[in-house]
């Protein structure tokens, strides 16, 4: 009898310990490219992760499948109509997943980001919609894995200050920032002299300027190395992604813009590098697969088994680097100006880019008009430098209206 009880207690305590060691994760943007990669990581490590919250905008069919697989506590969609659609899909599924709490809209995302059954929040929604959930997750003291770079572009000062006040580290998911974060671990930050932010150069790295007018959305959606959502893929094609990433690096690593160099590296194997006072440079490398950066942001300081291949350096032969061409791709100049002026200008750059990218995807403007719209919106903006969330949201709204008027 004693042996039996001891045996039962051992089984109970082992499963209890496993459960309390599991990280409960909210995945906001679960139906997107980052979200799906994150769920892939979670599925590979069911002993480490329990997905308790899922959120998307409209893709209720994919969300329903994810709910079926991960059985979260809460699911969030953009509108009440989508919530009704999701409920009716779930009604046809097995009983235990119908318990999921379905909410919608801004309040729903805020609830998801601060859910008591989530220890960590992966912020993988696209665009400005990510900002308020990010602030809610920080306010709730969650472990933050941040993919949504727009959050830091719009309101980096506020976000970093609120995270610092809460004693929270923001673990970057963006591959370059994850690389820089990894290069700066230990006490390396105090020796930092230069960040080398790598860029693939996108599909038009070698396209002459006179051909830019005839670039179609399907050409721009053809990224040479990464498989990503449509907005960031167009951003990569304009180098606006790198522009956003310069601002992101400035905030994440508390570094002036002139310490962040962009270097084109078309193979996307060196994910970024950091140069130190003594002339040493540390690089972080790997094949382009976001599961590495996502898992590191979620499991830090651990590194998880992902069964990814290493690059075959002998067959690659040379790692290529070249300077970005800002005359064909002015985005980097926009970002540097936005960093120098600060205030609400980065939020204007971001919002204007979002409108211009969507207009290009909808065949309403040409590829080079993306640059024109951003440039004009930034030039016409009356910058507000004493920043608060209201001024950021006002600037975002102003930039969207301004950009629409230019289409
Ligand atoms: N993809 C990548 O490899 C990388 C992405 N990032 C960043 O990560 C973020 C996500 O990118 P990615 O996964 O490629 O994008 P996707 O377009 O593939 O996915 C976007 C996700 O956000 C949801 N979503 C869209 N609009 C809203 C909204 N208004 N409110 C709430 N949810 C919304 C989508 O839902 P639905 O499916 O229903 O539309 C989807 O789940 C971006 O900020 C991007 O810059 C950073 C580095 C790499
Ligand atoms: C995977 C990732 O982090 C993307 O942001 C990637 O960097 C895009 O490639 P570009 O270097 O072409 O912008
Ligand atoms: Mn990136």
Automatic annotation (TrEMBL):
Question: Which cofactors, if any, are listed as required?
Answer: Mg(2+); Mn(2+)
Q: Which residues bind NADPH?
A: 31-34, 57, 59, 148, 150, 229
So what does this one do? Catalyzes the NADPH-dependent rearrangement and reduction of 1-deoxy-D-xylulose-5-phosphate (DXP) to 2-C-methyl-D-erythritol 4-phosphate (MEP).
Pathway stated in the Swiss-Prot or TrEMBL entry = Isoprenoid biosynthesis; isopentenyl diphosphate biosynthesis via DXP pathway; isopentenyl diphosphate from 1-deoxy-D-xylulose 5-phosphate: step 1/6
The processes (GO biological process) annotated in the record are: isopentenyl diphosphate biosynthetic process, methylerythritol 4-phosphate pathway involved in terpenoid biosynthetic process
One Pfam family name from the record?
Answer: DXP_reductoisom
Organism this protein belongs to:
Desulfamplus magnetovallimortis
Known EC number? 1.1.1.267
- Which residues does the record give as 1-deoxy-D-xylulose 5-phosphate binding sites? 149, 175-176, 200, 223, 236, 241-242, 245
* Sequence ranges assigned to domain 1-deoxy-D-xylulose 5-phosphate reductoisomerase C-terminal in this UniProt record: 170-253
Question: Which PANTHER family does the protein's record reference?
Answer: 1-DEOXY-D-XYLULOSE 5-PHOSPHATE REDUCTOISOMERASE, 1-DEOXY-D-XYLULOSE 5-PHOSPHATE REDUCTOISOMERASE, CHLOROPLASTIC
Q: Which reaction does it catalyse?
A: 2-C-methyl-D-erythritol 4-phosphate + NADP(+) = 1-deoxy-D-xylulose 5-phosphate + NADPH + H(+)
Q: Which Gene3D superfamilies match?
A: 1.10.1740.10, NAD(P)-binding Rossmann-like Domain (3.40.50.720)
InterPro entries, sorted? DXP_reductoisomerase (IPR003821), DXP_reductoisomerase_C (IPR013644), DXP_reductoisomerase_N (IPR013512), DXPR_C (IPR026877), DXPR_C_sf (IPR036169), NAD(P)-bd_dom_sf (IPR036291)
Q: What class of enzyme is it?
A: oxidoreductase
- Residues binding Mn(2+): 174, 176, 245
Any idea where the DXP reductoisomerase C-terminal domain is? 285-401
- Domain 1-deoxy-D-xylulose 5-phosphate reductoisomerase N-terminal, by residue range, is 25-156
Record-stated family: Belongs to the DXR family.
**Keyword set for this entry?**
Isomerase, Isoprene biosynthesis, Magnesium, Manganese, Metal-binding, NADP, Oxidoreductase
Molecular functions (GO terms): 1-deoxy-D-xylulose-5-phosphate reductoisomerase activity; isomerase activity; manganese ion binding; NADPH binding
Q: What is this protein called?
A: 1-deoxy-D-xylulose 5-phosphate reductoisomerase
């Amino acid at each position: 009898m004693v042996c039996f009880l001891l045996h039962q207690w051992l089984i109970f305590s082992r499963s209890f310990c496993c459960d309390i060691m599991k990280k409960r994760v909210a995945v906001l943007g679960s139906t997107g490219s980052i979200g799906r990669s994150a769920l892939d990581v979670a599925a590979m490590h069911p002993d480490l992760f329990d997905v308790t919250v899922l959120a998307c905008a409209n893709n209720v069919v994919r969300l329903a499948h994810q709910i079926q697989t991960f059985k979260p506590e809460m699911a969030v969609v953009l509108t009440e109509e989508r919530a009704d659609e999701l409920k009716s899909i779930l009604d046809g599924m097995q009983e235990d997943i119908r318990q999921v709490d379905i909410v919608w809209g801004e309040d729903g995302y805020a609830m998801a980001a601060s859910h008591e059954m989530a220890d960590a929040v992966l912020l993988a929604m696209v665009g400005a919609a990510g900002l308020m959930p990010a602030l809610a997750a920080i306010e709730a003291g969650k472990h933050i894995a941040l993919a949504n770079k727009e959050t830091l572009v719009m309101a980096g000062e506020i976000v970093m200050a609120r995270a610092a006040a809460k004693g929270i580290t923001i673990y970057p998911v963006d591959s370059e920032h994850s690389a820089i974060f990894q290069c700066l671990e230990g006490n390396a930050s105090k020796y930092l002299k230069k960040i080398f932010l790598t860029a693939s150069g996108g599909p038009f790295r070698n396209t002459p300027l006179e051909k830019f007018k005839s670039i179609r959305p399907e050409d721009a959606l053809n990224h040479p190395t990464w498989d990503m959502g449509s907005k960031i893929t167009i951003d990569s094609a304009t180098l606006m992604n790198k522009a956003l990433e310069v601002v992101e690096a400035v905030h994440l690593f508390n570094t002036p813009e002139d310490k962040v160099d962009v270097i084109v590296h078309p193979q996307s194997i060196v994910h970024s590098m950091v140069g130190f006072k003594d002339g040493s440079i540390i690089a972080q490398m790997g094949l382009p697969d976001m599961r590495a950066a996502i898992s590191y942001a979620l499991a830090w300081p651990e590194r998880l088994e992902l069964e990814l291949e290493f690059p075959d350096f002998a067959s690659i032969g040379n790692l290529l680097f070249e300077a970005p061409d800002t005359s064909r791709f002015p985005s980097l100049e926009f970002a540097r100006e936005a960093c120098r002026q600060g205030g609400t200008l980065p939020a204007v750059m971001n919002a204007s880019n979002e409108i211009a990218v969507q207009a290009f995807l909808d065949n309403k403007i040409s590829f080079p008009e993306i640059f024109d719209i951003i440039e004009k919106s930034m030039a016409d903006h009356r910058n507000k430098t004493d920043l608060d969330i209201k001024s950021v949201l006002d600037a975002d709204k102003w930039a969207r209206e301004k950009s629409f008027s230019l289409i």
